[in-house]
Automatic annotation (TrEMBL):
Belongs to the glycosyl hydrolase 2 family. It comes from the Bacteria. Residues 639-694 form the DUF4982 domain. Keywords: Glycosidase, Hydrolase. This is Glycoside hydrolase family 2 protein. Residues 276-453 form the Glycoside hydrolase family 2 catalytic domain. GO terms for molecular function: hydrolase activity, hydrolyzing O-glycosyl compounds. GO terms for biological process: carbohydrate metabolic process. It comes from Orlajensenia leifsoniae.
């Protein structure tokens, strides 16, 4: 079997039916694109988009893609399939005008067999249709946003998902590696073959070999099971992500019939309420981040370079686990987690049979759920980073007996496909009882509990302490007991009040905080450290995302955005609740969390903007961290009052300006707030424990110069269209200090064999497009993303008023 990337030569347009074109009522031009591609990210955002706060005010739409494919005469008699890693949504694949297959879910990998519809020896048209409209609670994107491959199989071959590698026994001097390989014989003849396997270590050297014959009748399939032994195994872990591979050769005599390779890791998992989660025998507390699937300025596009960058930055920020909220991950993201050492909770669905959006997957769920679970597990099964499968997120049905039946079906389906991982579900007791809570709220009709606009997120944020009382109520305990009982690990959303309660009520229940407020990390992490049955915390969110606009914004009473609900309205773009913004810059909460995790000894300074000093806060949800930033450059505010926050795990902090003490305070819950007056200079925080300095951190006022700096993430790129180069653009004083209060419109040009794939900033409120060559800095920063289209030298030039041009180069080969 051959498996080739199939992402070039495509074009797309908003979908127009032949009848509409014939009648002249509508027409649309085709635009050439290189897959993966998000058809929605370039569409103009509008204030009148229905429920626009969920999608970031991107309208929905229907789109179609087409490609010409030449099927050679030599392909006749072979099985030919297209492998789509994800198409959003309701994908329909046509070959020469004939429907070849469909997929309802927008996040599943799926295969479409196209050889019955091909004309061999000539060109063929492949067309893919898809659509999105009021079907998601966040920005989903649209189109063929993940990779596509062309598979060509001989009649006798290894199955497309036919290789499963497990490591059931691991000892310091030996590991058992079991390899199950499914062989298919679609020919008209009985055949006897030999399967040879070579296991290679992380350095590429052969560490084990095995072989087995297999005989197959016509039209049948069989499984070869090999058991190999690796001496002195190099284990996979977060800190040492050692990857092995197996090379498979299927032969008939001296003739090679098929070849395949698979990457895997040797690692063990253990779980119990006393010692929690253990990987390779060592206890691991999950420092987790929930993430949505978009990649900021790229939209929904998933490419390896983007996912590797995301995982690397999340690890730098102290996370060791991510939860794919709320849909299966892309293959590119799974590969990045394997290679960089990030644990994964891969999630299936945001809804089962009850809708959360007008046209979401709930209508398709009863028919498609089983195939979509199979698709997720088949893709994940050899990835050592995956340790959990989550069967859902905040599913209302989890509070009913029939919903528990559904949960058991899903959990047992997962176990039947993969018994080596743990099954969880992100259950929110509030949502599980929403059928009784909403009527009560509507009946009371008072301001404290009336159902506001913005859906369940707004209701949850408005409840505060009442939320904890609901989660720990006897009714919630009873209604969720069976749904939790079908799981290996009880996933709890915003239910930390249950952790110690359940230790006594359900001694065998193991808990993970599948979704938690970022403002609750201090108490949550203490619960994780103090309780063996609580194995980790997943904050909402590790990385900011498009849609669910403004749930993390701080709104002031004198602001136009101070209105009911969590969204401030158009042109808000992002949720603004991530530890890291949409272009990859760490926000102050990220450093606070790193200190709470015990991973940072130096303090950190976050300065509240002087312009906000004394303003009254109208609204701030538990997802909101505040407006403080790491800057001591506030032009025009000399002599004005300012609040300086210092984060530290020490006992006391001293604040100095140019070496002179201007404040001193006790650290409470890893934070101290010091009131002072803004004056330029170097602001230093010195942390003390028992009178001894434990660390210090500086912020220096930027100088008067204004320089535009361009910093590439790396120099060498692949030239085949599958790579991305990132250029961080920053306005500085020429000495590396960012002019956070000075923003400019930046224009970027790309010369050489590449395109400007996206250009944007972390600004949560903007009308600017990510598809334009101009973008305004936010906090002095923007990010340009280029995509090579061939070999050669690539030059990226950025210009801004009052600055010399910034130039950087890449080499594509």
């Amino acid at each position: 079997m051959t498996r080739d990337i199939f992402t070039t030569g495509w074009s797309y347009r908003p979908k127009v039916s032949a009848f509409m074109e014939l009648g002249g009522s509508a027409t649309s031009e085709w635009t050439d694109v290189l897959l993966p591609h998000d058809a929605l990210i370039g569409v103009e955002r509008r204030a009148d988009v229905p429920r626009g706060e969920t999608s970031g005010y991107f309208p929905g739409g229907a789109f179609e893609y087409r490609k010409t494919f030449h099927a050679t005469a030599e392909m006749r008699g072979k099985q030919i399939l297209l492998e789509f890693d994800g198409v959003y949504r309701d994908a329909a694949v046509f070959v020469n005008g004939n429907l070849a297959g469909q997929r309802a879910f927008g996040y599943s990998r799926f295969f479409i067999q196209i050889d019955p519809y091909l004309r061999f020896g000539s060109d063929n048209e492949i067309r893919v249709e898809c659509r999105t409209h009021l079907d998601s609670r966040w920005y989903s994107g649209a189109g063929i946003y993940r990779d596509v491959h062309l598979l060509v199989k001989d009649p006798v071959h290894i199955g497309a998902d036919g290789v499963i590698v497990t490591t059931p026994e691991i000892e310091p001097d030996r590991a058992v590696v079991e390899i199950a390989v499914e062989i298919e014989n679609s020919s008209a003849l009985t055949t006897t073959l030999v399967l040879n396997a070579e296991v290679n270590g992380p350095d590429g050297a052969t560490v084990a070999t095995s072989r087995s014959p297999i005989s197959l009748l016509p039209g049948t399939r069989g499984t070869v099971r090999l058991r190999t032994y690796v001496a002195q195994p190099e284990l996979w872990s977060v800190d040492a992500p050692n990857l092995h591979s197996v090379q498979l050769v299927l032969a008939e005599g001296d003739t090679v019939i098929d070849e395949r390779s698979a990457v895997f890791g040797i690692r063990s998992l253990q779980l119990d309420p006393q010692k929690g989660l253990r990987i390779n025998g060592e206890m691991v507390n999950l420092r987790g981040a929930c993430i949505h699937s978009d990649n900021g300025p790229l939209g929904a596009v998933s490419m390896r370079a983007a996912e590797e960058r995301k995982v690397a930055r999340l690890k730098e920020a102290g996370f060791n686990a991510i939860r794919s909220a709320h849909n299966p991950m892309s293959t590119a993201l799974l590969d990045a987690c394997d290679e960089l050492g990030m644990l994964v909770m891969d999630e299936t669905f945001d809804m089962w049979t009850q809708s959360k959006s007008d046209f979401d997957y709930a209508f398709d769920f009863p028919e498609w759920w089983e195939r979509d679970v199979e698709a997720m597990v088949a893709r994940d099964i050899n990835h050592p980073s995956v340790i959990f499968y989550s069967i859902g997120n905040e599913i209302p049905e989890t509070g009913s007996p029939v919903g528990s039946i559904w949960g058991r079906r899903l959990a047992e389906k997962v176990r039947s496909l993969d018994s080596t991982r743990y099954v969880t579900n992100g259950i929110n007791g509030f949502v599980s009882m929403i059928d009784t809570i909403v009527p009560q709220m509507q009946a009371r009709r008072d301001a404290a509990v009336a159902a506001p606009e913005g859906g369940v997120n707004t209701m949850m944020a408005g409840f505060g302490q009442m939320m904890s009382r609901i989660q720990t109520s006897e009714q919630a305990t009873h209604r969720t007991e069976e749904s939790y009982a079908v799981l290996d690990v009880a996933g709890m959303n915003y239910a930390e009040a249950r952790y110690e309660l359940d230790r006594d009520l359900f001694p065998d229940r193991i808990i993970v905080g599948t979704e938690t407020w970022p403002t609750s990390i201090v108490g949550n992490w203490e619960l994780v450290k103090a309780n063996g049955h609580v194995i980790g915390d997943f904050t909402w969110t590790g990385w900011d995302y498009l849609g669910e606009t403004g749930i993390g914004a701080t709104r002031y009473s004198d602001s136009d955005s101070a209105q009911p609900g969590f969204s401030g309205g158009f042109p808000e773009l992002t949720a603004w609740c991530g530890d890291i913004d949409i272009v990859g810059n760490r926000r102050p909460v990220s450093y606070f969390r790193e200190i709470v995790f015990g991973l940072r000894s130096d303090p950190f300074i976050a300065v509240n903007p002087p312009a906000n000093h004394g303003r009254s806060i109208a609204a701030a949800t538990p997802w909101a961290w505040g407006d403080a930033i790491a800057s001591w450059t506030w032009d025009g505010f000399e002599g004005r009052a300012v609040t300086v926050d210092v984060y530290s795990d020490a006992e006391e902090v001293e604040l100095l300006l140019d070496g002179a003490t201007i404040g001193r305070a006790q650290i409470e819950c890893f934070r101290a707030a010091i009131e002072t007056t803004y004056r330029t200079g170097t602001l230093t925080a010195v942390a003390y424990a028992q009178g001894v300095e434990t660390g210090r951190f500086d912020l220096t006022t930027a100088g008067p110069s204004l320089v535009l700096e361009a910093t590439p993430d790396r120099r060498d790129l692949r030239s085949d269209g599958t790579d991305l180069g990132y250029v961080a653009l920053a306005l500085t004083d020429g000495n590396g200090i960012i002019r956070t209060g000075t923003d400019r419109l930046i224009t970027v040009t790309v010369d050489g064999p590449a395109t400007l794939q996206a250009f944007g900033s972390g600004n949560p409120v903007t009308t600017e497009s990510f598809n334009a060559a101009e973008h305004t800095t936010f906090g002095g920063r923007t990010l340009a993303i280029v995509r090579p289209t061939g070999p050669g030298e690539i030059t990226v030039t950025a210009v801004a008023d009052g600055c010399p041009p910034a130039v950087t180069t890449f080499s594509a080969s």
